[in-house]
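Board notes (copied after class):
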Amino acid sequence: MHTFFKLLPLACACALCSAMAQTTASEIIITGNPLGREQTSVPASVLGRSELIERGQSTLGETLSGLPGVSSTYFGPNASRPIIRGLDGDRIRVLNNSASSVDASALSFDHAVPLDVLSTERIEVLRGPAALQYGGSAVGGVVNVIDNRIPREPLSGLSGKAQLQGATGNNERSVAGLLESGNERWAWHVDGFDRHTGFVRVPVTLACDKTGETLYAPRICNSASHSWGGAIGASTFWDHGYLGASVNTYQSDYGTVAEDRVTIGMKTTRYALEGQVRQLPGWFESVKGRMSHTDYRHTEFDNGAPGTVFANQGHDLRVEARHRELLGWQGLVGAQLESGRFSAVGDEAFAPFSLTRSRALFVHEVLPTFWGQFNAGARWESVHVASLGNPSLSRFEVGARQFAPWSLAAGALVQLAPAWRLTSNAAVTQRAPKDYELFANGPHLATHAWEVGSSQLGLEKSKSLDAGLEWKAGPNRMGITAFASDFDNFIALLATGQVQGSLAEQTYRGVKASFRGLEANGRQRLWQNTATLDLEWRADSVRARNDSTGEPLPRIAPLRMGATLAYAQGPWGAKLGADWHAAQNRVPTGSVATGAYTLVNASVSYRQKQDGKLFDWFARIDNLTDQLAYSASSILTSTAFGKSPLPGRSFKLGVQAGF
């Protein structure tokens, strides 16, 4: 804890003169704010379409990395999941339009999230205790990827967008487009994208063994990819509601980088139905429901030969009913049903066939006051996890466990003055163990270990608290948030000292763990005339410890600080920024420490309006100084050091056209 307070003055200093493009008062956050209030205590970041054009990468994790409190698992350029406040895997809930995104990305670091920012309109990142209403698997936070594949508002006439972009660092060639049309009663949507990338350039020569012959090049071995997909959707509207449906597909073939000859072929198809009825009589004024079915499958190929096949078939149903005001309280009650059927077939199947079902009831309430607002929520769950074994492998335990986790949360927003407000959130959360945490028993090459589950694991329990101070005056703003989480029975993958085959044995065990951290961001207007010049700052830090052993927890991002000069004049914009990452020497036994590094980035944009059409041109240089760096939050840094440094210098050029 003493380190936590040592960092407090540093973060405060950064925050009081800092800024970063994040939520503004005029934006309505969707995630964690079901009542649609303009001001909430939710610690959230929002990336709209313009921000996604500016910072979008080929993976969800790398696109979001660098937001306050957000890093990434970075398993090379093709597989990367967000880490929020030091928590990753099944403690971060990835949603698509507020519904569960069914895949296998939390199971293994080399499994990609089947979502692409080329087809995304908006991403919201919800951090900390306010994520309660999405369950124990959201104890770290929620990432909600939002699109308009089911139109939720009537459309008028025909509109569309198209985007082209290319990059030198990975030879990227990407194209995406969408069309939408409708009237006051009907609307339809269609979109598609295609992204090709080659081997990623890095500032060091690496040895690659792709065909039995060792080759040397300044490229990440086996880092090429091809992703493509699309969707169709339609909605019908009436005076007090809408009903819509969509179907979308995502496919990707990519190299896994840890092994020069292994590639993954992934395909997922998702069907969704969504609707809302408003202005109802009686206790409830509106009801909203979402239902989805997802078929996910990927095959791992070794030198072109099919190997292990992973599949996940899932269903998700969520219903929310908003009640009328009662004694000043505004809120909703809801229910959620989820099920998933997982299978892994092949010699490297380290988890058995399994069936997971969960049922949940939740409530979210807000009480507006003269000083701000108070909010509270609760969620009760029933989770059934069953191992079905494996028809071709006898090493898996067959059995089932039943869990009843519950969570409580409360938060407050205090308007101290017109420009100042204080926010705070607290939660007690319980998470049921996942199927692989209970029943795994096999070789997992992404972690270079033989993983063994523990069928006797109990609920993972945590207590979390965050407090934030925000200030906004005209174009200037700043914010600082301090957070702390303490876990009883934190489910961690720990070495046993034994060896199975040629792999070190690791088992899932419950330990005590604690997380402490700070997030600071803001913006200061330096100059304003016909043009503007802003200084944007950001800083964050997290310390995580295994309190049962006294050792640090692995894959924790170090202290990070950054600044950007942002210039704007008419249709032109330009940015020059640098982000410094401290050395990460606080690593457990068996992990590799990383050195400090600074990444410099620059961009130029131009907005052109012509005959009712809008063109957004952009050019960006990433890692301008071609800095060699390794991610402290990537498992590859410890299991395959040198195989996958962060990308080197890359120039990206693109345009988005709309009508």
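Comment from the instructor: Residues 2-658 form a domain with the Maltoporin; Chain A fold (CATH 2.40.170.20). Residues 533 and 567 are 5 Å apart (CA to CA).
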